[in-house]
Design goal:
single chain; mainly beta; three-stranded antiparallel β-sheet
């Protein structure tokens, strides 16, 4: 409910009739059809009159609510590699390295997080040097692998990846290099099967002066259109205002319909 005020300076003012409580109601958007790059999202759009489903022709005088839109979860990426760098030592055991980057498929100058690309197909960034053994006593001692903390998972659900930096403290290290990538958040994402529906504001309770307008907010199953408990919807009922204030001046009557909607 909301309060509404209208000036009473013109007692004989005849208000134009309000449109009926007919409106478009929409379900939540579907998942994007493309996992990366541009895709399409769709949603169900139905015509309602006083919370009841009616023929779309009843809403033909209203602006159509979009049932389809473009979407993009993330850019599509591909791996690019640089040239192998020179070995850091002239003899013994060591590794040479090269840069490995994930870049946009549509803009190679745009570097993306590694987890945007297929981590399992990431090219090697290091390899053993092809050099001769050092004379006895000349080879530098091996170092240890040092791992940085894991980054945040690339997704909140549905299976993603997280990465960390792993470096060798010397020119070569002993043992197997710790993994740089790890699968995370493998649990399935919940499906949004319910959505809030909101009726239009009612006619003001008075023809002039201060009054009230009300509207109804309810939780509904997106497919069947049946009302369900408020706890089934994602956001709290308090997110939606059902009581408010409006002031309508008699000098602005051409805008009456837009204010009362």
């Amino acid at each position: 409910m909301k309060r509404c005020d209208r000036e009473c300076s013109i007692p004989s003012l005849d208000l134009p009739p309000l449109p009926p409580s007919v409106y478009w109601a929409s379900a939540p958007w579907s998942q994007c059809t493309a996992s990366c790059g541009e895709g399409i999202q769709r949603r169900q759009v139905i015509c309602r009159e006083n919370s009841e489903v009616v023929s779309p022709s009843r809403c033909s005088h209203l602006d159509r609510v979009e049932s389809e839109q473009k979407c993009m979860n993330r850019p599509c990426g591909e791996w690019t590699v640089g040239e192998w760098q020179s070995c850091p030592v002239s003899c013994g055991s060591a590794e040479e390295s090269r840069s490995v980057s994930c870049v946009s498929t549509t803009n190679s100058s745009l570097i993306l997080p590694d987890t945007t690309c297929d981590v399992e197909k990431r090219p090697e960034s290091t390899r053993p040097c092809s050099i001769s053994p050092c004379p006895s006593g000349k080879e530098s001692p091996p170092g240890l692998w040092k791992s940085q903390p894991w980054t945040r998972c690339s997704v909140s659900c549905g299976g993603g990846w997280r990465r960390r930096e792993v470096i060798c403290e010397r020119s070569h290290c002993i043992g197997t290099k710790p993994k740089q990538f790890e699968a995370c958040n493998k649990e399935s994402c919940p499906k949004e099967e319910h959505a809030w529906q909101i009726s239009p504001w009612t006619t003001c309770s008075v023809s002039c002066g201060g009054g009230e307008q009300r509207r109804t907010v309810w939780c509904e199953h997106s497919t069947s259109g049946k009302k369900v408990g408020d706890s089934e919807c994602k956001f709290l009922h308090s997110e939606f205002e059902t009581i408010g204030t409006t002031r309508l001046s008699s000098s602005f009557m051409p805008f009456y319909n837009s204010i009362s909607n």
